[in-house]
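Bench log. Compound arrived from synthesis this morning; before running ITC I wanted a structural hypothesis for how 2-acetamido-2-deoxy-beta-D-glucopyranose sits in the protein. Inputs:
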Amino acid sequence: MLLYILYTVVAGLAVLPLVLYARNPYFLKDLSYAITAIQIGFRMGTFRKQSSFYSILDRFLDQVVRQPHKKFIVFGESSYTYGQADKESNKVARALLAHVPLKQGDTVALFLGNEPHYVWLWLALAKLGCTASLLNCNIRSKSLLHCFSCCEAKVLVAGAELQEAVEEVLPALKQQGVRVFILNDDCRVEGIESISGEIQQASDQPLSPQLRANIHIKSHALYIYTSGTTGLPKAAVINHERLWMASFLQLVVGVRSDDIIYVYLPLYHSAGFLMGLCGAIERGITVVLRGKFSASNFWNDCRKYNVTVVQYIGEIMRYLCNAPKRENDRDHKVRMALGNGIRADTWADFLQRFGDICICECYGATEGNVGFVNYIGKIGAIGKENFLHKMGYKYALIRYDTEKEEPVKDSRGFCIEVPRGETGLLVARIGERTPFSGYARNSQLTEKKKLRDVFVKGDLYFNSGDLLKIDSEGFIFFQDRIGDTFRWKGENVATTEVADHLLMVDCIEEANVYGVKVPGHEGRIGMAALKLKESLDFDSKATYRHVKNPLPSYARPRFIRIQDALVVTGTFKQLKVKLAEEGFNPAVITDPLFYLEDNKGYVPMTQEIFSSIAEGRIRL
Ligand SMILES: *[C@@H]1O[C@H](CO)[C@@H](O)[C@H](O)[C@H]1NC(C)=O
């Protein structure tokens, strides 16, 4: 009898995984994700409690002790070990200190493209307890000054190739008493100090940890610029807690200590810097750094450097799939791709063409307090819900009115959670473990991202601005972005910023900027509806001039629609949804349309241009 009971129990235990598997085929992956998440939660808890704070820099220094001779950064034909990177950053820190009395808490703005110096500079600043402000190296003039002023930096360090852009804003910087350094041996412009020579000659001895003794988990580590819902870019505050959370992503998706990661996304964005570089430091792996993405060199680089993990944004995956097929398409060691924004059709194409690569699609905003990972590899999903999620933090999809551009409220004035399978706006509760640090020196915009009294009186949520859908198995799908931004080529474009530039053109009275979908492309491309001043014609040349100089190419309106009057809501908010749906087909729209031709300017839109775009003969 006893034996029989024992037998039943053992058999039952053996069958249990099968039963669980039948009920949930993702059980094991769910469980393994949950275990990692608990480990990370545990480590974060220790970081929060420790009296002397352990930062990602300390992690780097531990890697230096543990594996000084392991390659850390590979760039072109050069490579630097962990030990060398440590010394290089000591030199940079000492050279900076010799010029400016930097102390912990000060901010230094970095304005350069991807290169090893980017990494040395940031490590140097971390060693001095300073905050690094990561300026987008594509921005110029007014936007550059705006971003610089956001973070109250006293010092700007620029790459040699950006001298012209710096000179353009130099008078204003001088007025603010900013010290400007350039990574150059010699610079003859008054007010710009070259610093490369000093860096080379500086001592590489370690800097005293005393210099950063006051840094704690809530100290600002970085400012990363995002184009949010309105106006010019905003400096999202990345404190050390947020930095750690993002650095753990590689651990979550299963990057191993022998992996080699390819980082070509800009280091001034969170994907390249936090997920790529900092994640690599947490794992102690080798980073193959590249200045810019190049479709023709992508796989060659992967082969040359034995890359095993690549980062991506959706556009990149499509470029790779669109490139001419080669015989050696599957000849590489890449086993994992980590990123976001890949479309389902591209995903399937990619796997079929380049082989069995685990694609880990992730979701999260730079400044956000909520993130998801599609750790199952389900095509098309940006994440999967896990039972831990719901215990750890509270988020919800709420019903949203895209015409009125606001959440739908019930009779008591609270938001309504959408049923499974329906699209809703993602909001996440702001709490002690899910903080929202907001934007530097901009409490007004920080406030705008917060929603109050969402489900009960007095609660507080972060408004992600993204419309998502969750299916019955818990897979999360991205649907759309709301409001005043759209994404194109992996960059957020703030419609009001673009409109501000258009309004500087003499002939333009009102401008409404929005994004339109283009067949075969992720995201939306810029389009503007314009109302012209009385009795003036559309001045295509002046308009081109005004968008070409200050705006990066991804933000320039590709299509222009001239209207007699712009439609506004009862509260004089511009309507974008309907215009965006109407698109840019001259056969449908009777208003005059213009198209921005590369290196030429605005030309009248024709049916032929439209067909070429629709059929993919013109690449946007
Ligand atoms: C890549 O791996 C191969 C074989 O494992 C090795 O011979 C080669 O030296 C490696 N290349 C680099 C750049 O490390």
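What the model suggests: The first strand starts at residue 71 and ends at 75. The chain has four domains: 2-47, 54-245, 385-480, 485-614.
ITC booked for Thursday regardless.
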